[in-house]
Hints:
By secondary structure, the protein is an alpha/beta fold. It contains 22 helices and 21 strands. A 7-stranded mixed beta sheet has the order 2-8-7-6-5-3-4, sandwiched between helices. The chain has a 7-stranded mixed beta sheet with strand order 15-16-17-18-19-21-20. Helix 6 links the parallel strand 3 (164-169) and strand 4 (185-190). The radius of gyration is 29 Å and the shape is globular.
Amino acid sequence: MLKKSSAIDRxxxxxxxxxxxxxxxxxxxxxxxxxxxxxTVQAIADAIDFYGYEVRDELITTVKDVxxxxxxxTNFKPFPLSIARMKESLDKSLMYRYPYTEGDDNxxxxxxxxxxxxxxxxxxxxxxxxxxxxxxxVHNLTFLPSTSIAFNYIVNIIAKPGDVIIVPGPNYGxxxxxxxxxxxxxxxxxxxxxxxxxxxxxxxxxxxxxINESLQKVYNRRKGxxxxxxxxxxxxxxxxxxxxxxxxxxxxxxxIADVCAIRGVFIIDDLVxxxxxxxxxxxxxxxxxIPGYFRNTISLFGLSKSYGMASLRAGFVVADEIIxxxxxxxxxxxxxxxxxxxxxxxxxxxxTSKERQxxxxxxxxxxxxxxxxxxxxxxxxxxxxxAVSPKYRNQVEEKIKERINDxxxxxxxxxxxxxIDFPKNLVPDAGFFAIxxxxxxxxxxxxxxxxxxxxDLLKFFYKRSRIRFLVGQSISWPNTEELVGxxxxxxxxxxxxxxxxxxxxxxxxxxxxxxYLIRKNRLEDQEQMAHIKVDGWRNAYDNIISSKYxxxxxxxxxxxxxxxxxxxxxxLVLVAVKDDEVxxxxxxxxxxxxxxxxxxxxxxxxDHLNKGIGTTLFKETAKELYENNKKNMIVWCFNDNESAKTxxxxxxxxxxxxxxxxxxxxxxxxVGFYYDLKMINENCF
Length: 685
């Protein structure tokens, strides 16, 4: 008989995640095709989810936290001509009419004139009567609520299942997730300080070729379509590095465009931050304004970041007619049309009138000054007042002293924040984000808990200061051994100062790092690990396990076993290492039975016992398991091993099981200690 249930019950049964209220960011979502995100994108999604939801506690409903990772521009008046244009439209009392899906042609013509004034040119135009001298017409663009929606549609249009979109790293992490949700695959092109954090065309070409070659090998026996690289996301200016490719970089832009055009790869030219360049002569140059590249380029413009209207959600796309036609189709099928008021706001900001140029110069002249001051304020709080530009030094110093209102504390704060740096060559030319390097905090401790990962870093600052920011994993930071965070300096001065002061105070609570580090094991560690196991058994189990069995243990055969199983277990072993010496290690496993996971073994070099290494390895193992969605852990040890039982009891374990095991020719009783991984991790820091 068909089970009866309410519609809500059925929905909840099919979507159990909806049973829990979330505070902060909504759920990241899943791929539309039901497949899992690829590991790179899943890591980004996990990091964003941790920042936006998991790290926050139950106090969030009553005690506000400080979000240093937000994307809002600074609190500045919206662009006056956009406001005037929207008011004028409302006063005409034409709101009763549905807008056209593609947008009003008069509005599109104003936007077309604007991009043509920037130099947009199609050197391979169609033969329609309305094509102008630049090879374009109103059918080369349309507008939508936000460039994020546009990006989603574009990915759906240009990518088939398995196709790849290359995104530089660092990046705006949500674009990588959106691309995969739409069914594409995402690969990261790592940027580097050696290239001044700009796209290296040779590395891009190599990346495209390598991906296409590997896809050809995988799919060469299948009939039909072979996936390939279909697009490269070119963020100019970059979020989050703030690097700009302007007229001075036209040769670099041509090389990037050539690499993509030759290989049949679209360029998605994200120009949303274009007007927030700090120097008027260093404004991002659109690739579509370079002759010969228009048809291979999809350009994105928007109001939210630069024009003080993030809440409006307004953007427009400029591309080949073929793309715009299908984009309009998708708009019609998904949302019917973009609001006309969005178009009105856009043409208020993006037009070629003399009035607009005058207002633009006044508006951005003031806004650029504000952002440069705010960057220097952050610079003083991180590197000290001596690092600040002379132009802003007095203003910054007075603001900090005024806010702190304590001469001794202000003096200390003006020296900068200890253990925090800016990465090499990473001074922003645009936008309002900065990358902070927290790597010097790696290994430092608070109440016995070690900062080893970016999650540790974020958890420490949240619990001690209620401060959040986006960590490197969420922006595809290329140097994975480093601990970094993306910080916005678009906040009110008082909030930014208070946050960095509290961060400063929290850092002073940390104790120095141990002289060893915890990491995943490597192939070259196996021989040392084998010696530690053999010595550990002989040392710990001398009066527990038969001497006959212990005498059979030998370094060579144990080393061979470890090396033979390394590939299978390499991600399930943590080692404590000082220089090249392995001091101890832990092995763990993921279970699908009564307990989610197990700490299989924990060994310390005999001459390094009772130095806290075992406790650190235990906590890091518990952390690793919890971050891989395990809820509990079981640890087995010999019932006669009183020192081990004391160790696991002191760590909060409770004996819940007993069992008999056979080792050699004899049987021994073991006890199982149970641990709640959530409790262990939530008590950290």
